[in-house]
Structure prediction request, 375 residues.
Amino acid sequence: MKIGITCYPTYGGSGVIATELGKALADRDHQVHFISYGIPMRLTQLKENIFYHEVEISNYPLFEFPLYDLALTSKMVEVCKYEKLDILHVHYAIPHSISAMLAQQIINNNGEKLKFTTTLHGTDITLVGLEPSFLPLVKYSIERSDGVTAVSQFLKDKTLIHYKIKKEIDVIPNFVDTEMYRPKEDCVFKSHFAPKGEKVLVHISNFRPVKRVPDVIRIFNEVNKKIPTKLILAGDGPDRSECERLSRELGLKEDVYFLGKQEAVVDILNASDLFIMPSQSESFGLSALEAMACGLPTVTTSIGGLPELVVHSETGFIAEIGDISRMARYAIDLLTNESKYKQFSSKARERAVKCFNLDKIVKMYEDHYQKVLNV
Ligand code: GMT
Prediction:
């Protein structure tokens, strides 16, 4: 099959999933064409059946704002026409789905056939898409997509309800390469972060307000009062300065490591014991899945798709948004009870392998493409 993939190429989980999917499809002998404004972050190896098409944006002085959506549409038309794509798969509805819809009309108007499918990831549905100015556009592009997938049942339900859509949406959860993301006993970084054998809490995100990273620091503060611990914070974004200020104010400067954006996620997770995700909005929670694959129990909130990922009291613990003392109690419970910790750790890994492994989920996407093409 010849598949075009459009995504945001930067750090977000939707771009990670789109890129890993493209790589996995190429490994299964499909031809994959990425169409985006930048080379996707994780597209690092050369492969004969993976191609990248950059969207160039014209700088004509009359255009006060860059016409990205239209430039993307034009690139989609060009790639679809000359590479004879079977299907275009866009990740994150805004604006990708709208561009794909327009590209399809142009292609089909010329007597050719192009199908496109949209994967809904999160704030494209729960936040940005709900803005009154965007809602009709997002609704229409979802309705007009030949296929639609959502990364959790939660997101599917929200889409059908909020947009009053009667459309078949396939739930295809996110995935992780459990060969790459796995527990490594011999992690050399552990002693660097925890020289006295302290337990290590970890959080990885883009530090947007929805991630509630200050809550991670407050949870850590509670835990640290009871047991010697360190905290690793990886990633960067709008709340980073506030988090650095808070950790100084709480006297935690020596115990909190701000690593900034990092690619060595597997090493960071393997240097850690417990993953904390206190988000206020999370349609799936990909970084929690990556942590589980490395054998880390997770402490998360109960929102969005997180309860579909984390099994409370088995692979981790779930609490209400903002319930810092409860999340801290859960963390202390796990970090002070070795046999319980080991049980949670192996259950977390087991669940990642059984339910969210790359092979299983990529096959679901292949079946989805086949279904869309056969309609
Ligand atoms: O929707 C967003 O906020 C951005 C998006 C991203 O690109 O990271 O995150 C969403 O998609 C991820 C991949 O499917 C999910 O793991 C995240 O839970 C989801 N974020 C939210 O729902 C806030």
Remarks:
- The chain has a mean pLDDT of 96.
